[in-house]
TrEMBL record:
Catalytic activity as recorded in UniProt: N-terminal N-formyl-L-methionyl-[peptide] + H2O = N-terminal L-methionyl-[peptide] + formate
Species of origin: Amycolatopsis suaedae
Protein name: Peptide deformylase
Entry binding sites for Fe cation: C89, H131, H135
EC number: 3.5.1.88
Length: 167
């Protein structure tokens, strides 16, 4: 099992748009294995490659007994119906804020054999798909908060021991 060290808010890799995977080889397989191993811990719903310092479009998920990964994911469908749902992030630990998300989401990408895969879900699974795809686009959930919540969140992050700029 390869639990990888997490990157935290303030680390530039989290604000960088990830590159598509173009080689489907043992290094890609190792990355997927590491993502699956690292997300397989209590309280973890999803993990994107940038969160372990890898600038590639891959994420893993572990929601309600559904465990998997998607390479080169793209959000292809979001429901018009939205809700504010408490959201946190492994790269912004200990902080939770209501975040507006579509109630249903569909992601399309490929697997390790470069074969098409589709993952869809409602509520928490939809939130996970949106959250992890955001990571690959250089966005954190904090970027989606309303002005007052974002200001409070940024103030709180700067006070945390894990804040990257404080290291």
């Amino acid at each position: 099992m390869a639990m990888r060290e997490l990157r935290y808010f303030g680390d530039p890799v989290l604000k960088t748009v990830s590159d598509p995977v173009t080689r489907f080889d043992s290094s890609t397989e190792s990355l997927v294995t590491d993502l699956l191993d690292t997300v397989d811990a209590p309280g973890r719903a999803g993990l994107a490659a940038p969160q372990i310092g890898v600038n590639l479009r891959v994420f893993s998920y572990n929601v309600g007994g559904r465990i998997g990964y998607v390479i080169n994911p793209e959000l292809v469908e979001l429901s018009e119906e939205t809700h504010d749902i408490d959201e946190g992030c492994l790269s912004v630990p200990e902080l939770w804020f209501p975040t507006r998300r579509a109630k249903h989401a569909v992601v399309k990408g490929v697997d390790l054999r470069n074969e098409p895969v589709t993952v869809e879900g409602d509520d928490v699974m939809a939130q996970c798909l949106q959250h992890e795809t955001d990571h690959l686009d250089g966005l954190l959930y904090l970027d989606r908060l309303d002005k007052d919540s974002k200001r409070a969140a940024l103030k709180q992050t700067r006070e945390k021991d894990w804040f990257w700029a404080r290291r």
